[in-house]
Amino acid sequence: MKLQGALSLLFLGSAAAFAPAARNSASPTALFNGADPSSFGQGESLQFGGKDTSTGGAGRLRDKLNDADVERRKIQEEADRRERAAEIRREEKMAKIAYMNEMPDDQPAGTVDEFMFKEGVQDQLDKLDRDLVGLVAVKKRVKEIAALLVLDKMRRKLGFETSVPSLHMSFTGAPGTGKTTVAVRMGQILAKMGYARRGHVVLATRDDLVGQYVGHTAPKTKEMIKKAMGGVLLVDEAYYLYNAANDRDYGQESIEILLNVMENNQDDLVVAVAGYKDRMDAFFSYIPGMMSRIGNHIDFPNYSADELVQISDVMSRDLEYDIEPAAYEVFKKYIEARMELPYFSNARTVRNAMDRARMNSAIRTFDRFAIEGENGGECTVADLKNIAPEDFQILLDDILNSDSDKRIFA
After folding, report:
1. What is the CA radius of gyration of the chain?
2. What DSSP string describes 215-238?
3. Signal sequence: where (predicted)?
4. Residues 309-331: what's their mean pLDDT?
5. pLDDT digit string (tens) for 162-205?
6. Do 173 and 348 meet the contact criterion of CB atoms below 8 Å apart?
7. How much is the pTM?
8. DSSP label of 402
């Protein structure tokens, strides 16, 4: 009995302890039957009070799906276009193969002479023979290149596969051996054959290509390349572009631009590099990429004394002068003596000698008719065109009689 009473008291105490909480809370039934909502935090409702964005979200999703669909269509259309282009190329190739297989071997292709004369190539080769004395090996190489271009054009006319050969060139030799003249003729041949739009030659040196400060080299090099587009860019003494003693030299940047143009624009620009053979060989060893891009290496030997005399005859003909037969012997002695001295420059030395001979002839003629009054001061056309032995003898005497420390300037 005592135990039962104790349990009853414990139960009653627990119920009293929870009574206030029960009185202050609303039953679930009362909540859903319209009971006072203040019991849920002073009138706060369980209803959602934010903005409904479900419609906008669906719109954005729809736009994204539409964009993705458009992108997929573009990708598919591009793939279809490429596939169709490839199919067209395959059809053209198969048609060409069939055409070439059906073409008889005795199909007339025209004569080589017809192409040589029709395109004006033979005219340029004749000018090269007429204007450039000697250099048999050089002329032979130029004719070989011309033959390749002519035959390539004949093949193209019949439908054969063709590709632009590597026309970049290296000219090695001493000054005055005709490198610039050959470059000009090659540019004109390329233009006649349709391998160059203009065929002109732009001569450039380090000063034309390399700048003096950071950011200056690229614009200068690109400007020279722009001028030469459609023709030939002849870089004289190209080895000066590379300075092995200075890793920060700006010439390396110019070389890299030239290499890129030689690789990617060979169908519209021919680059020719020129200079002394030993120095050009060293330059190619430093820049192997330049060597590998050049397919035509032409070496220009020095002229002989007899060839230089012939060059003087060509120059006098172009300038409308007449050299007396006896004057050629004096001139040859001068050339032989001058070849033994430093800084000999082949045809350039001949040109300088001809300029001095013309000046000596002018002084002699002026003294005869203006000072001495010969023939009443009247001279003939022959007098104005004449170059006599004494006009060259003055040059020879300068070498033979001057002091040894001055002879190199003769």
Report:
1. 46
2. TTHHHHHHHHHHHHTTSEEEEETG
3. 1-17
4. 94
5. 676 778 999 999 999 988 888 888 888 878 777 777 888 899 99
6. no
7. 0.64
8. S
